[in-house]
Every structure is written in structure tokens, then in C-alpha cells.
Task: inverse folding
């Protein structure tokens, strides 16, 4: 079973997360280290074309999408075979097979969780899994925060309800989207903290203001 790694952080944004069936997809234009490594390989451009074709397949799945190349787009679904992917992408099976191998084992853009014995991952899938887990452990050890991913409207509404706050989730998302998800001059790190700030601000605004010249009853009797 194949999964495109870090799908949510890379190929979704606040708008796409609220669309059940997308007809478009946000694709990063950053040409990072793995992109450069891939394009320097023999047939690297071909492998990159295969990857984009697989991204398009996943983008047409029903929300919530998480990069799984399965019949229903979930980790529990039936894996799409090479023949299935050939029918969906119009790319010959032998090209798909070679490119998937490169993208999984050498570049790390795909995770292969194919089971080889009923309860263990294939050696290829295990290498990718271990590499991903090691990156996460290193990030936590160094105290680095996870990459910020803008929330969908439904996520804001759901979280606000969980803390007893009635919020216009669409207004919240539109407000920070218009600011490029900046808080002051800094990139937002935790949108849930921003929701809590909105809650505190609204609570303070609803508190009755003490009239000028107001004094306690004990002061009146003194």
C-alpha cells in the first residue's frame, strides 16, 4: 500500500480541506534538496512526472484526503494496483513500477506499507517508516515545533465547540488568511492558541464595565 508522505502539510490548504471533491490542488513551488537530487538522476524528470500523476490521483479522492493510494482514499482501503494506477494515470505499468521504487527508497516522497508476512512491513516500507519516525524524534529532541498547517473551517469550529466557544469559524480563517497567517509580524505557530485568545477577548468585552464613581457597599457605610 502506498501513501504520499506529509500530504496534509504539502498538498492541502485551508480552502482545499473544506472541499469534498477538489478539481484543483495546491502544489508547492519550492525546489528542495530531494527535488534537485531527483532531477539529477537518469530518468529523473520521468520519475517526477509519475509523482505528480500520483498526486493528482490522490487529489481527486473524497475529503479528508491523506495521500493514500487506495480505492477509498483511506489507510484501511483496498490498495490500488499498478494496473489500477495505469488506468488512472495513463502511464505504462513498467514506468510506474520503476518510478515508485525510486520515489520510495531513494527520494522518500512515497511510503510503501505493503505487508510481506501478514503483520510486518516490507523492508522498503520499514526503511521509510523508520526514517520518518527518526526525523520526528530528532525534531522533538531539538525542541523544534511541527510545521504549521493552516486549519480548515470545520477544524476551527470543532475545536471552538470543544472549549465552549461559539465562533464564526469562517471569519476566523478568512481573517488570518488575509494576513498570511501572521500574528503581528510573526508566522502563526498554533492556531488553537489564537482561538483561545479570541475567546478570552470576547469574554472580556462581555464583562459589564464598572461605572465611574462606583464604590462598594462597605465603603458607603464607612
Result:
Amino acid at each position: 500500500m502506498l501513501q504520499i508522505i506529509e500530504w496534509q502539510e504539502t498538498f492541502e490548504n485551508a480552502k482545499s480541506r473544506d472541499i469534498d471533491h477538489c478539481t484543483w490542488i495546491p502544489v508547492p513551488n519550492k525546489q528542495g534538496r530531494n527535488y534537485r537530487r531527483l532531477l539529477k538522476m537518469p530518468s529523473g524528470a520521468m520519475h517526477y512526472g509519475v509523482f505528480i500523476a500520483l498526486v493528482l490521483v490522490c487529489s481527486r479522492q473524497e475529503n479528508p484526503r491523506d495521500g493514500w493510494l487506495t480505492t477509498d482514499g483511506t489507510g484501511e482501503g483496498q490498495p490500488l494496483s499498478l494496473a489500477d494506477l495505469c488506468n488512472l494515470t495513463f502511464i505504462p505499468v513498467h514506468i510506474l513500477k520503476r518510478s515508485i521504487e525510486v520515489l520510495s527508497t531513494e527520494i522518500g516522497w512515497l511510503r510503501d506499507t505493503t505487508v510481506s508476512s501478514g503483520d510486518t512491513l516490507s523492508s522498503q516500507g520499514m526503511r521509510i517508516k523508520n526514517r520518518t519516525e527518526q526525523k520526528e524524534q530528532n525534531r522533538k529532541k531539538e525542541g523544534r515545533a511541527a510545521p504549521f498547517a493552516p486549519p480548515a473551517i470545520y477544524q476551527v469550529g470543532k475545536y471552538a465547540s470543544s472549549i465552549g466557544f461559539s465562533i464564526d469559524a469562517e471569519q476566523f480563517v478568512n481573517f488570518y488568511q488575509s494576513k498570511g497567517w501572521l500574528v503581528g509580524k510573526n508566522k502563526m505557530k498554533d492556531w488553537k492558541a489564537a482561538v483561545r485568545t479570541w475567546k478570552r477577548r470576547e469574554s472580556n468585552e462581555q464583562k459589564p464595565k464598572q461605572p465611574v464613581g462606583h464604590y462598594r457597599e462597605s465603603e458607603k457605610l464607612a
Notes: The chain has two domains: 2-141, 153-206. Residues 115-125, 215-222 have pLDDT under 50 and may be disordered.
